Amino acid sequence: EEVTVVQEDFGGETTVDDELLPEATRLLIENGQASISMLQRRLRIGYNRAARLMDQMEARGIVGSFEGSKPRAVLIGWEEYRQMFGE
Length: 87
What we know:
Number of domains: 1
CATH topology: Arc Repressor Mutant, subunit A
Strand order of the largest sheet: 1-2
Number of helices: 4
Shape: globular
CATH superfamily: Winged helix-like DNA-binding domain superfamily/Winged helix DNA-binding domain
Low-confidence stretches: none
Oligomer: single chain
Number of strands: 4
Distance between the termini: 13 Å
Structural class: alpha+beta
CATH class: Mainly Alpha
């Protein structure tokens, strides 16, 4: 069963969470750091989708903010992951 979460962003537009969000989050927790290029390689997706996933994760408090060329910090652990995604 696939669950889609619809959120309203700051501009009043709705955004739909990507179906890869749980898998992407799991990868980041396993690696301890987050980067768009890592998501591209591990999930075999393009830059735009990986960047959207990263934006969704930042909005949910899963990863920290952009810091230039450094990987982003992963702000949650396995307990928070299970609370968010029920896995």
